[in-house]
Amino acid sequence: MEWGESPEETAHRELAEETGLSATLGPILGIFSRWFTPEESVAGMAGHAIGVIFDATEPRGTLRTVFGDDTTDAADWFTLDEVRALRHVALVEVTLGLLDR
Q1: CA-to-CA distance for 35 and 33, rounded, in angstroms?
Q2: Cβ-count burial 73-99 (b if 16+ within 10 Å, e if not)
Q3: Which CATH class is domain 7-100?
Q4: H helices present in 2-89, as ranges
Q5: What are the residue boundaries of the structural domains of the chain, listed by start?
Q6: pTM of the predicted model, to two decimals?
Q7: For residues 54 and 11, what is the distance between their CA atoms, to the nearest angstrom?
Q8: Distance between CA atoms of 77 and 35, rounded to whole angstroms?
Q9: Which parts of the chain register pLDDT below 70?
């Protein structure tokens, strides 16, 4: 989240930066919260990660296929079952659990 951004503004910006897409944001489905140790951090410092998980519909745009040296390696479309079978981070696991409710 950038200084002064609302959670909704952050979601729109991150979606565009990470995938090249935009979408219509719906309600908040849940919150992801995880403390991490210095050993788990790229910066070598302990911290707290918080993610606001929105329902998003009506994706628009063209999925990015070229990425720089930031956090995204690739973006693609998957079914939920395919996502479950992939190696993924804790945020994805929490999101899948919210979608299963």
Answers
A1: 7
A2: eeeeeeeeeeeeeeeeeeeeebbeeee
A3: alpha beta
A4: 7-19, 80-85
A5: 7-100
A6: 0.83
A7: 8
A8: 29
A9: 70
